[in-house]
From TrEMBL:
Protein name per the record: L-gulonate 3-dehydrogenase
InterPro entries registered for this protein in UniProt: 3-OHacyl-CoA_DH, 3-OHacyl-CoA_DH_NAD-bd, 3HC_DH_C, 6-PGluconate_DH-like_C_sf, 6PGD_dom2, NAD(P)-bd_dom_sf
Domain spans labelled 3-hydroxyacyl-CoA dehydrogenase NAD binding: 5-190
Pathway(s) of this molecule: Lipid metabolism; butanoate metabolism
Lineage: Bacteria, Bacillati, Actinomycetota, Actinomycetes, Mycobacteriales
Single Gene Ontology MF annotation: 3-hydroxybutyryl-CoA dehydrogenase activity
Catalytic activity, EC: 1.1.1.45
Domain of life where this protein originates: Bacteria
């Protein structure tokens, strides 16, 4: 897709998407829809400054050469609604990024459809409303879908693309092609509340809060456990691949135990029960959510272990033999054999 891209909405999400697109070597126009009176020029300048700040962060991170920064910024324009006609008419795709208020979405999508070309795809970045709901606000739902960017949009690679029942396959393909071309990773999911990531993280974050409330551990200890033991593994293996890795039977039995102790929400999913019944327990059976030929299993495991080590090394959690102080380890081991004063002799 070589036509310019338009982002309607000049708030934080719109600014982040603009930075990502400009960095991805795509011309992008950000449209501020709000009537701001005498403060309009100042807001447009502030929005452009925010884009510049995001790109300068990439310079500090070593992702963008300082000498390339002017060229990237030249690809990004920020304009008012009154100055957007030409950009809207020429747009190859329009991202809607206005606040999560249904009436604002309705008015914005109606305006986009009237201002953009007849076949221009429209991608709402909403995290709250399904494309099936938003489709009621446009005359041509075949060109509408959701494209949910994760914050911060300029850095996070994942974008969840959610087409509706009437979305044309060509619109899904064009949107995914654009996202891939600018360095993002699109994943396609059905129009379902919470998409993929927000639905999963809502469960995990609420459970973490419950554990603090119940006195299981402090917030500091829980977050340390998540960063080191939870996040590092799932950065390499997705949740479903991890089920296969450890064995569906492990999850099945653990879930039934936790259901008995903590409640029905921990019970195994019906599909997990089906996999148990049909002998699709994962790597040990060569079949689960993924199928792996027995002859390829050793190589697969070796590749994943190497990836684990890379993630742990990048986060400073991988210890090398020569880094561990011998005497400190021996002293700690020796302390374990010393019974504390007053300990029971039974």
């Amino acid at each position: 897709m070589t036509a310019p891209i338009v982002v309607v909405g000049a708030g934080r999400m719109g600014q982040g998407i603009a930075a990502a697109l400009g960095f991805g070597k795509v011309d992008v126009t950000v449209v501020d829809l709000r009537e701001r009176g005498d403060g309009a020029d100042a807001y447009l300048a502030a929005a452009r400054d925010a884009v510049r700040a995001s790109l300068k962060r990439k310079v500090r991170l070593g992702l963008l050469a300082e000498s390339d920064l002017p060229a990237v910024l030249d690809r990004v324009r920020v304009v008012s609604r009154g100055a957007a006609a030409a950009a809207m008419a020429d747009a190859g795709l329009v991202f809607e990024a206005v606040p999560e208020v249904l009436d604002i979405k309705r008015a914005t999508l109606s305006w986009i459809e009237s201002a953009a070309g007849a076949d221009t795809p429209i991608a709402s970045t909403t995290s709250s409303f399904l494309v099936s709901r938003l489709a009621e606000f446009v005359a041509h739902p075949e060109r509408l879908l959701n494209a949910h960017w994760l914050n911060p949009a300029d850095l996070m690679p994942l974008v969840e693309v959610s087409p509706g029942a009437e979305t044309a396959p060509s619109v899904v393909e064009a949107t995914c092609d654009l996202l891939s071309a600018v360095g993002k990773t699109p994943v396609v999911c059905a129009a379902s509340p919470g998409y993929i990531v927000p639905r999963l993280q809502a469960l995990v974050m609420n459970e973490a809060a419950r554990m603090v409330e119940e006195g299981v551990a402090s917030a500091t200890e829980i977050d340390r456990a998540v960063r080191i033991g939870f996040g590092s593994r799932f950065a390499v293996l997705g949740l479903l691949e991890f089920i296969d890795w450890g064995g569906c039977d492990t999850l099945f039995h653990a879930s039934n135990y936790l259901r008995g102790e903590l409640g029905e929400r921990f019970g195994p999913a019906p599909l997990v029960e089906q996999h148990m019944a049909s002998g699709r327990r994962g790597n040990t059976d060569g079949a689960g959510f993924y199928d792996i030929e027995p002859a390829a299993l050793d190589d697969y495991r070796a590749q994943r272990i190497a990836a684990f080590a890379q993630v742990l090394d990048a986060t400073g959690q991988l210890h090398r033999y020569d880094d561990l102080p011998r005497e400190a380890g021996r002293a700690a081991a020796g302390a374990l054999s010393t019974r504390p004063a007053g300990a029971s002799q039974n």
